Each structure stands twice: as structure tokens, then as C-alpha cells.
Amino acid sequence: xxxxxxxxxxxxxxxxxxxxxxxxxxxxxxxxxxxxxxxxxxxxxxxxxxxxxxxxxxxxxxxxxxxxxxxxxxxxxxxxxxxxxxxxxxxxxxxxxxxxx
Length: 101
Known about the structure:
Low-confidence stretches: none
Structural class: mainly alpha
Shape: elongated
Radius of gyration: 16 Å
Order of helices and strands: HHHH
Distance between the termini: 53 Å
Strand content: under 5%
């Protein structure tokens, strides 16, 4: 029985680790509690990126395909988060950060 590209690579890809770090930064609540079209667009874009990743991983035939899929996914998550935060800031809403220490 042959291993698929995903099984052969395991889960020790640098690109996957970066993507998993980006996943941990997915916003789970709207900035300032404002549920507007920007928030819903952001959530839809995240869902689409996740669907695209699953499709890309399913089509991957080698290690390079896997790396490309994870890299693209991480880039999309980062870009969508950045765009949402910037667009909300343009409207006067800021994303808060708490620092302890």
C-alpha cells in the first residue's frame, strides 16, 4: 500500500506550522462588537480559505504541493485578518490588545 503525499510528509512541515500559528490568530469576535458586512465578509473569507486548503491537500501529489497549499492558506488567513482590521480602523474601530507583565 502506497502512502499519500500527506502521509509521507507527516505533519512536520514548516509551512503547516506557520499556517497553524495563523489559525490561532483567526478573530473569533468582531472588533468592538460590531457585526457589520466587514465582519461577515471576513468570516466568509476564512471559511473559503479553509475549504480551499482541504481541496488543495486532497489534490496534492507531492511534498511541494503540500507546502504550497499550507503556505497559501497561511497567507490568505494573514491577509484577510489584516484587511479586516485595517478596514475597521478606517471606520474608527480599533482592535484592542492587552499586555500583562
